[in-house]
Design a protein that fits this description.
The protein has helices at 6-14, 16-20, 37-55, 62-78, 93-103, 113-116, 119-136, 163-167, 205-209, 231-252, 273-276, 294-297, 304-324, 331-338, and strands spanning 143-149, 180-186, 196-199, 220-223, 259-263, 284-288. The chain is flat, with a radius of gyration of 26 Å. The chain has 343 residues and is α/β, with parallel strands linked by helices. The chain is built from 14 helices and 6 strands.
């Protein structure tokens, strides 16, 4: 029945009692050997910690997860009676790979800028920034930040039953259809600048079909083949959206006509932006974050963008449910006929 040898089945049934009494962490779907209660508790607590970090929008490196596992193990061992026999736990990379396989967790390793980020430079920058704000007399309503993100706007999260159909759709590429969004807001939080959206098509078919006027959209629509923010597009957004919006807001609120825009040194952000600003917007000062400090300092990375993605995914699920409920529509039908870039 199970396509296993007689000796394997005999070994398993011979340890029936031990297997049934084994401590198994929630989410574990594979038990390869008998494990100590302490190690099971470590992995239970570690799964909770990882889940909390993911909900907060944080990324985790292998070394950080292993260090947390060792810390949890040490804390649990200290609470045990002195007579307890506890085996050594190294939380090695081999253990981590097996832990991932047992618990089926994904996306807990982060490479790139987070690994090379210079926290000391970030801390120094924070102090200098604070002094600058105080010296200039800037209020939260006058300090803005912007940053980009590139969501696959049709892609469902991996851990959903609905993705089984997605995997069964050969050559169905729209689920990997990508766009770039750039968000901008100020430190006080209640004024939203119209986001920049860059797509690979200037006039999608659904726009033509519905006679869409892009100038009336709730985003500043631009396009290029790779759906990337270029310097020219950024400058357009700055002059046509950011400058006028901020100026009108400050005048309306009777605040001093001065503004600070904080952003990272991405290739799409012109380093000579001050020279490209029209005289009309000379009241705007631009400051760039130091290299490799974005994970620590970029305000839009402090759960602003991650929360947007969560809300967007929730809205997408709700629409899918509302459209397909009590019908014979499949996920393919929903994507093709009921969910477009216009939605």
């Amino acid at each position: 029945m199970y396509n296993k040898s007689r000796t394997t089945i005999s070994s398993i049934t011979g340890k029936k009692k031990e297997i049934k009494e084994a401590f198994v962490a929630k989410g574990v779907n594979m038990l390869t050997k008998m494990r100590t209660p302490v190690l099971e508790d470590v992995e239970k607590l570690l799964l909770v910690w990882i889940n909390e970090k993911q909900l907060a929008g944080d990324s985790l490196m292998t070394s950080l997860v292993c260090e947390k596992a060792r810390q949890l193990h040490d804390e649990l061992v200290k609470k045990l009676p002195a007579t307890s026999d506890v085996s050594e736990f190294k939380a090695s990379k081999v253990w981590f790979e097996r832990f991932k396989k047992r618990t089926d967790i994904h996306g807990v390793i982060r490479h790139g800028e987070a690994a090379s980020s210079d926290q000391k430079v970030a801390e120094k920058c924070v102090q200098e920034f604070k002094e600058y704000i105080e010296a200039e007399g800037l209020k939260p309503e006058q300090v803005f930040s912007c940053d980009e993100t590139g969501p696959f706007w049709k892609k469902m999260p991996k851990r959903t039953y609905i993705t089984q159909e997605e995997k069964a759709l050969p050559g169905h590429k729209p689920m990997k259809d990508r766009l770039t969004l750039m968000f901008c807001a100020y430190a006080s939080g209640d004024f939203k600048v119209k986001p920049l959206l860059v797509y690979h098509s200037e006039n999608p078919k659904v726009f033509k079909k519905n006679n869409v006027m892009k100038s009336k959209l709730c985003v500043f629509w631009r396009s290029n083949n790779k759906a990337w923010v270029t310097r020219d597009i950024f400058v357009e957004w700055f002059i046509e959206v950011f400058g006028p919006s901020v100026k009108n807001y400050l005048l309306e609120k009777k605040l001093d006509l001065k503004c600070l825009l904080v952003m990272d040194n991405a290739p799409s952000h012109p380093p000579n932006l001050d020279d490209l600003i029209l005289e009309e917007f000379g009241f705007i000062t631009v400051k760039f974050l130091p290299p490799n400090t974005t994970p620590f300092l970029q305000p839009m990375d402090q759960q602003v963008i991650s929360n947007f993605k969560k809300l967007y995914t929730k809205a997408m699920f709700e629409r899918c449910f509302n459209v397909t409920s009590d019908t014979r529509l499949t996920l393919r039908d929903f994507w093709k006929e009921h969910f477009s870039i216009l939605h």
